[in-house]
């Protein structure tokens, strides 16, 4: 099966890099599914979105992302987020608690954190 190089990077650190079969992300234009050989594209990520990376090892790396860009080139995919958290790093109870005292932006972030872990509000 074809594969591509993928990087998931936030301002403060690199969260994940490796090879993948597919990447799914939500941009300001809608949800996009990226397979190897995809046309070069640059997209703005939504606030409070979730990125899923289907690795060549059969795992799914899931992250809550907050703003930034998605760059698709012949070399692969780079997700450059303003901030991001891998699903296994998210404290679900804290994310739920954050929802109760959140403004609109904070609420979007808390909801993305919950969706990234497979939970709902």
TrEMBL record:
The keyword Ion transport applies. InterPro entries: ATP_synth_F1_dsu/esu, ATP_synth_F1_dsu/esu_N, ATPsynth_dsu/esu_N. It is a peripheral membrane protein. It holds the Pfam family ATP-synt_DE_N. It is found in: Cell membrane. Residues 4-84 form the ATP synthase F1 complex delta/epsilon subunit N-terminal domain. Coiled coil: none annotated. GO terms for cellular component: plasma membrane; proton-transporting ATP synthase complex. Keywords: ATP synthesis, Cell membrane, CF(1), Hydrogen ion transport, Ion transport, Membrane, Transport. It comes from the Bacteria. The keyword Lipoprotein does not apply. GO terms for molecular function: ATP binding; proton-transporting ATP synthase activity, rotational mechanism. F-type ATPases have 2 components, CF(1) - the catalytic core - and CF(0) - the membrane proton channel. CF(1) has five subunits: alpha(3), beta(3), gamma(1), delta(1), epsilon(1). CF(0) has three main subunits: a, b and c. HAMAP family: ATP_synth_epsil_bac (MF_00530). Produces ATP from ADP in the presence of a proton gradient across the membrane. Belongs to the ATPase epsilon chain family. This is ATP synthase epsilon chain. It comes from Solihabitans fulvus. The lineage of its organism: Bacteria, Bacillati, Actinomycetota, Actinomycetes, Pseudonocardiales.
């Amino acid at each position: 099966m074809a594969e591509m190089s993928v990087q998931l990077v936030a301002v403060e650190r690199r969260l994940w890099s490796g090879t993948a079969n597919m990447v799914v992300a939500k941009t300001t234009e809608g949800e996009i599914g990226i397979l190897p050989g995809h046309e070069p594209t640059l997209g703005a990520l939504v606030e409070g979105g979730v990125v899923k990376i289907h690795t060549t090892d059969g795992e799914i790396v899931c992250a809550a992302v907050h703003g930034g860009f998605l760059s698709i080139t012949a070399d692969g995919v780079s997700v450059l987020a303003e901030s991001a958290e891998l699903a296994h790093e998210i404290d679900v109870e804290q994310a739920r608690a954050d929802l109760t005292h959140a403004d609109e932006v904070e609420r979007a972030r808390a909801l993305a954190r919950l969706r990234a872990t497979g939970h709902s509000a």
